[in-house]
Fold this sequence. Notes:
Layout: H1 2-19, H2 27-39, E1 42-51, E2 56-61, E3 70-74, H3 80-90, H4 104-108, E4 114-118, E5 122-127, H5 137-140, E6 146-153, E7 158-166, E8 170-172, E9 176-189, E10 196-209, E11 212-230, H6 237-247
Antiparallel strand pairs: 1-2, 1-11, 2-3, 4-5, 5-6, 6-7, 7-9, 8-9, 9-10, 10-11
Helix pairs in contact: 1-2
Amino acid sequence: MTTLRAVVAVAAISLAATAAHARELPPLLERALQQGEVANQIRWSFTSSFENDDVSLLFRYEPRGEAGNFTLLAPDALDDTGTRVFARISEDDDADSDLTHEQARVVIGDQEVRVVEETDEYVTYAVRPNPWDDVEEDQAAVFEHLMAELTVSKTLEQITQLRLYNHEPFHARLVARVDRFEQIMRFEPEPTTGLPLMTSLRQEVEGSAFFRRLIRIREETYRDFNPVGLEGGEASCAATCLQEFLAAQ
């Protein structure tokens, strides 16, 4: 993988030069963001599990071609709900871009970044988040009610956790009230390249719609990564998760 590591190094230098012209961020955070942006320039295959109140899936993703990128590993047969969920997942031809935290720079934008916790091992930064690039206009307003926290390892100089949560209740789609929203994405170094990739996502939403109380939990895991090429894309996992909840109301 010498060639791949060389490409990663060149990409990092290029991104560092670009970042030099952007708004200045804490040096540790800036270096961590650049690693996520480099990871986003590589195509990845991976194995993922998906579980919510209705379905539990295990599948493999290979970023080759326009179709057939997803292979269901378990269960052996799907009911109607499982079929719909897996079909929706399989529509994402750029699913590997969700593994990176490349959109973290968009989330920060020109917002004030402050340190909320620091230890010998990590620093946690907080920011009022900007909407993801692919969030629709009516859903972008939701971000006004959210906070983002980015935890950066001092040793790895990588983001190890990205947390989104609401600081106040809010209404969405006119009929849904969200009392509690929290989404935690955890990242670890991929063994081959050392770049940070998401290994788990957990989302919890509590609220009400049509006079019914709603509690929804969604969990995803990612493993067995393999770099298969260079291309790039947009990380949109958190935005997608939130959009799907709102669309379901």
